[in-house]
Amino acid sequence: MGRSPCCDENGLKKGPWTLEEDQKLIQHIQQHGHGSWRALPKLAGLNRCGKSCRLRWTNYLRPDIKRGKFSKEEEQTILHLHSILGNKWSAIATHLPGRTDNEIKNFWNTHLKKKLIQMGFDPMTHQPRTDLVSTLPYLLALANMTDIMDHNQSLDEHALRLQAETVQLAKLQYLHFLLQTSNSSSSNNPSMKENNQVIELLPQLDNTNNNNPNSFSQEIFAGFGSQPLHHQNNMLSDFLDPQVSFNSQSFLHNEQGQGTNCAIISQGDNTTFDHDSTNLIIPSSITPNAMGTSITSNPGDASSSTSSYVGGISSYWPELFFEDTIKLQELS
DNA sequence: AACAGGAGCAACCGCACCACA
DNA sequence: ATGTGGTGCGGTTGCTCCTGT
């Protein structure tokens, strides 16, 4: 059913609020409460529509509003809640005292969304972007460009750092790609085409880091000997040996604390990322089913440290990789 | 110093939902 | 059961400020 806009009456002011208008609104609400927002403007002596008054009050003038930059904790909370709730800004705002839905929405759109995109995540699904193969050449070009600069005497530290970060980013995205393609292959057998693409990319990755004895392709293949990527029994878990995947120990915890190929995320009461002990603690309110696909290192063998919720941790990857990025920058 | 482009943010718009007559 | 008013919510716009050239 249609309804006319509340602000279509002619003569009502729009646009930025003046100090005088703010004071009128504050004074009226302090004395009488807001009551009916539609009736408020006349009672308060404001030439605005009720909706405009309500927005001004709830988003800006309310006394309990916290202003200023978002803290790291608030940022983590937003990311976490957004991975669960999506764009339910008002619901997210209820967990952040003093912050309005509008403020959170703006912060998301101007900061966090870009951050996720830069890190190769889809900001809506919080999963690695599926267009890795198309974005990787760009990353590699960046890396190669700085590699060329490496031979120039005028190279500064910034270029070196950029190169390192770019290579690391490419590695991260590459790992995500492996995780995702393997995870999405219901037959546990990634297509030959996918694997060939991956294999073709490896030399490019290594070219960005020729001086490193532990080149990335060597790291990747080290986890499963000389098996080609399209091996019949190739599983996601094959890629998750802590020695193989980049910084895997920082976000995938091996249940036995040994070098098996299966990563385990434990469930606990608090939602935290314990960087030191390499555990991601997932709230018990989130069930494994809700989190995503369960993966086993040996299908059908329940004793083989099964049920790592690898598919489901995608919701948490953003905060994980913020941590990793910080670590990277500190190292570089 | 002047200008252009981008980022950040307040405010607006329009749809959806709910309560009530 | 239906229509209407009030409010909430998410998406979008446009203004202001900042930064780089």
From TrEMBL:
Domain HTH myb-type: 9-61, 62-116
Top-rank taxon, per record: Eukaryota
PROSITE patterns in the record: HTH_MYB, MYB_LIKE
Main localization category: nucleus
Bilayer-crossing regions: none
Residue ranges constituting the Myb-like domain according to the UniProt record: 9-61, 62-112
Keywords: DNA-binding, Nucleus, Repeat
GO CC field: nucleus
Cross-referenced InterPro entries: Homeodomain-like_sf, Myb_dom, Myb_TF_plants, SANT/Myb
CDD domains: SANT
Places the protein is found: Nucleus
GO MF terms, alphabetically ordered: DNA binding
Signal peptide: none
Protein name: Putative transcription factor MYB-HB-like family
